[in-house]
Amino acid sequence: MTFSFSSCRPKSSFISSLLLFLPLLLLISSSFADLSFNFYGNSCPGAEFIVRNTVRSASTTDLSVLGKLLRLIFHDCFVQGCDGSVLIRGNGTERSDPGNASLGGFNVIESAKNVLEIVCPGIVSCADILVLAARDAVEALGGPVVAIPTGRRDGTVSVAENVRPNIIDTDFTVDKMINVFSSKGLSVQDLVVLSGAHTIGAAHCNTFNSRFKIDPRGNFELVDASLDNSYAQTLLNKCSSSIDPTATVVNNDPETSSTFDNQYYRNLQAHKGLFQTDSALMEDDRTRKIVEILANDEESFFERWTESFIKMSVIGVRVGEEGEIRRSCSFVN
User: Fold this and answer.
1) 84 is in an annotated binding site
2) pTM of the full predicted structure?
3) Which of 52, 68, 71, 75 is catalytic?
4) pLDDT, tens digit, 9 for 90 and up, residues 144-160
5) Structural domains of the chain sorted by starting position, each given as residue range(s) with its CATH number in brackets
6) CA nearest 148: which of 313, 329, 316?
């Protein structure tokens, strides 16, 4: 594989970053020979700019779309690889599964695809657009600039029954999460680092409100002792004050929800992880030590995020003659 890079960083900083991730690049190069950091350099040189511009434009009217785009890549890559299958509409598809009912950002992917089909018809895959859009969402909120290898092709199969066995539920133990990540070729460090995605985005009350309750006398009762009492009370107040708690959303990060930073890990140390799966990372020696490192060093978090994000973005990719290049991201050709 031939790698090519472009960056606005100072040359010395860029070279340092390249040396840091060289082992990862060699791994990708040996396993995914049809992926390249400049795959569309000749066939559609403006592809990444078009995706980035579409993401930025969408976020000016709805900032929450950035968190939705980042979540979307997890639900795509973890189910049957990064093949854009979560984007396909229809009965019985991944997108129709109740586990994916709260996903969003589809319109941004489709908007980028529509422009690309005018400029470079039949060239850029929806799978690549999805990965690039997630990358750009992180960058738009102050996160690291990540060079992404492209050349993925779109899958043609999307089955709802594949969703539940492959995605992380909010009540999973650390062991269950490690098992899921391991099945995708991802490590314990990748689990903790990629959980840092919860530094942005929001969640519906029904995904975490089992951690506290109101007893028959109307008193607040903390069910999950790993959750800070005052934080739990704040969450309860917000969720119970809504006419429809299932429609109410709460920021994943109560401190800096509009910035991609390492605040998430400091929240975990303060017992303010929104989900049970967040709090669980502080209760296991294998994950707590990594949380502590990332909470104290944002640069380390950004470096490790870059590595883990790239690893996730190449899970089960279709390349070469596999799959297709969809004309619409919502339907197979």
Assistant:
1) no
2) 0.88
3) 75
4) 999 999 999 999 999 99
5) 11-167 (1.10.520.10), 174-306 (1.10.420.10)
6) 313
